[in-house]
Structure formats: structure tokens, C-alpha cells
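User: I'm preparing a small set of examples for a lab meeting where we compare how different chains pack in three dimensions. I only have the primary sequence for this one, and I'd like the structure in C-alpha cell form so I can line it up with the others. Please keep the answer compact; I'll paste it straight into my notes.
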Amino acid sequence: MEIKKFLDFLPTNFRHEKSFFIQHNFTDLDNLSNLSDSDINDIQRKSQLCTLNNLKKIRTIAIFKKEISISPPEAYLLLHCGIGSIKSLSISTPHELEGKIGRLERILRVKTETDITFALLKTWIERAKQILKSI
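Assistant: Understood. Below is the C-alpha cell output for the 135-residue chain.
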């Protein structure tokens, strides 16, 4: 996925972070997924409009995209369901994730536009477990 499309996916509340990445030619998805906490703190010092929370979310979405091949909308959905790392994904069950997604949809009173199936959730969890084993 091209970084421009990745940045375009992000909602408007990420506008300051998107602007910073574009201005500083930070255009590689690998670079976004490899941001350390120190890098994130440096970015926040350079641009005080960038929030720590949003920068960490962008890093997590990039990690999910790079490591597990989860699309940005699906990764963003996982973040809203409380899954913020590969480790937390690996210890989840498909049934539990399905329940969290359903609960989020009911709370928001909307149906997500992603086509997430039980089998897809199982695949994501298996990939996350394989990644943790290889570390």
C-alpha cells in the first residue's frame, strides 16, 4: 500500500500528524511501523500539535498493516475495540473479537464497512501468534 493512501485513510483528527509526516517526507510505511517511543517523543517536541496518542495509533496501524496485512480501516477498528498490539491480538479469540466488534457497532449504532468474518479473525490471530513466536 502506498503511504499516501495510508495517510489519506486517517480521519481528520489526525490532520496534524499527517501534515508533519508529509512535510518531513516521512513516506515509508516501514519507517512508520518502526517508530520508537523516543522517535514519537521527538516528533511531539518538534510539532506540539501532534498528539502522543495519535502518533502511537498511527504506529500501531502501520505495524498491523506491515506485519499481519490488516488493512488500515480494519486495524483502526481493532484499536477501537481495545486491541492495540500484536501481543493483545495473539491472546484474543475469534469469538471474543467478534463480540467486541459487534458491541462497538451497537454502541455506535452503525455497521462497519469492513467485511470481517470469523475465519479472517482466526487468520489474524494465528499470524500474530506466529510473529510472537519468531521474536
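A couple of notes for your slides: The longest helix spans residues 52-68. The radius of gyration is 15 Å.

User: Perfect, thanks.
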